[in-house]
Recover the amino acids of this structure.
């Protein structure tokens, strides 16, 4: 089955960081800055999900108590897409992802995919065949997470909720 409406927990950069990313020459200028994000967890495809699943995830996230954490990227890499990455371990972000999965499982929220990808920001989904390069650090403190449905093929994010992290 091809994904149609995957549901993610994301962190989106604040406007000043979006502006830094948009200014990068390898960024796809055809995508709006509001679509820039870091996927923290992939949950399931809403198109194929049971009707109650979204509400179960929202209820679980309503009880999440987790600390804010930093994200910093210092490299541009071309894999299948052009992404902002770092070789740093991003220990606090990875700890948040692990705690998020534990929390969702404890609260019996459905997670058919349940993946926690290595934190990165995709800036061009088409790739550019250029080599990896260092760049000045771009980062922010993630103090809010979003529950977002990605509408495949429409370049659209539908927000289903936002939760503040402890600062």
């Amino acid at each position: 089955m091809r994904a149609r409406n995957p549901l993610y927990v994301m962190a989106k950069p604040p406007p000043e960081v979006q502006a830094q990313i948009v200014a990068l020459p390898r960024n796809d200028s055809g995508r709006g800055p509001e679509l820039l994000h870091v996927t923290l967890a992939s949950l399931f495809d809403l198109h194929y999900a049971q009707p109650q699943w979204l509400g179960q995830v929202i209820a679980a996230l309503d009880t999440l108590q987790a600390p804010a954490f930093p994200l910093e990227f210092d490299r541009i890499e071309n894999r299948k897409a052009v992404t902002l990455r770092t070789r740093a371990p991003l220990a606090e972000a990875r700890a948040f992802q692990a705690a998020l999965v534990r929390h969702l499982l404890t609260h019996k929220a459905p997670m058919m995919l349940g993946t926690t990808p290595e934190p990165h920001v995709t800036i061009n989904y088409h790739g550019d065949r250029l080599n990896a390069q260092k760049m000045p650090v771009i980062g922010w403190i993630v103090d809010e997470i979003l529950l977002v449905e990605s509408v495949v093929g429409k370049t659209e994010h539908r927000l289903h909720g936002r939760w503040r992290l402890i600062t």
Summary: The radius of gyration is 16 Å. Residues 69 and 142 are 5 Å apart (CA to CA).
